[in-house]
Amino acid sequence: MTSRPYLAVVHYDGAQFVGWQRQRQGRTVQGEFEAVLERLMGRRTTAIGAGRTDTGVHATGQGVGFTARERWAVDVAGLRRALNALSPRDVWVEHVHPMRPGFHARKSATARRYRYVIGTDEAAGSPFRRPYEWALGRPLDVETLARAAAALPGEHDFRGLAARDAAKPHYRCRVAVARWAPRSDGAGVDFTIEADRFLHRMVRFLVGVMVDIALGRRPPSDLPRLLDATDNQTVGPPAPPQGLYLEAVRYPPDLYAED
Fold this sequence. Notes:
By secondary structure, the protein is α+β, with helices and mostly antiparallel strands. The protein has five helices and ten strands; from the N terminus they run βαββαβββαβββααβ.
């Protein structure tokens, strides 16, 4: 029987995972998803993620590509139900789309959007919130954060704001959206950033620097300076992983095989 590519839009709670990518030790989202595919398809099936989220990072819109038999294209609702029936409680498939030949979950993506959540009230320390946000517990001025983020849209070299990676051919990313907003419940602030690609820990380093600026620990000029830096030696620690969510991945419309 012939096969075709599919795209699953996946949510997961990253608290109990050592990240998306399969590793020799530790529980990974890719490992769990591939185990579900093997049970469902009766053969080993590779799952490719659009973004390689780190330990503790969550997702509400991870793009996962895999190959399955053509017959599932007429029953994608059934495929989604089967994936969810076999998945662990901390993984959930929101949508399944049949895709056209040539689709690749990572290489075909034109943009990715991340959201970072910070709790600024005392209740952020609650065990029901702490695993899912940065429990800062201190007020932050949204206008100061917004002025810092205004330097980000456009194309920049982010080597000063990312983990070092000798295998990277370049560190340039094109940022389309970078905005801060108060949370609707008044309990904190959210940062949303969308770009064509992201580097390892890039969002967490950016959030850490902007929070330091808002708290008066760094001058506002530090962010533009780090965008011109040739290394990451002065960036400081990244924001904690539990506040970060991979929120959406964008693909060209003509790659979707649906009517």
